[in-house]
Design goal:
By secondary structure, the protein is an alpha+beta fold. The protein has one domain. The protein has a 4-stranded antiparallel β-sheet with strand order 2-1-4-3. α2 runs antiparallel to α3. The radius of gyration is 16 Å and the shape is globular.
């Protein structure tokens, strides 16, 4: 199922429910049928998501050497997109909403 996040400060952001649930959880909210991230919550939400992205990048860098790409006898592994790539549209929305003192809503 698709979840659409809305904010008057920027275009809507749509994502699959499992990713939406993960990202909303990182910023300290629960993904219900309806929800809101108020403008007062945006600063801490942005900080939490940015910290999670930094942590994910560090973990991915540590595991990069374990993929054995191009070595004889090892299959080539496709590396899935990282949190930074998957979270960018949502993080961009959080930042835009913060600049405009706007709330982000879903399920409306």
């Amino acid at each position: 199922m698709l979840i659409t996040f809305k904010c008057h400060a920027c275009p809507d952001v749509m994502m699959l429910e499992n990713l939406a649930q993960y990202l909303v959880g990182i910023v300290g909210k629960r993904l219900g049928q309806r929800g809101v991230i108020t403008h007062d919550e945006l600063g801490p939400a942005i900080e939490k998501l940015e910290a999670a992205i930094v942590s994910d990048k560090q973990e991915r860098a540590e595991h990069e050497g374990h993929f054995h790409e191009g070595e004889d006898g090892h299959d080539r592994h496709e590396i899935p997109p990282g949190l930074a790539q998957r979270a960018y549209p949502f993080l961009d929305m959080l930042r835009a909403a913060q600049k405009e003192n706007a709330d982000i809503v879903w399920g409306i």
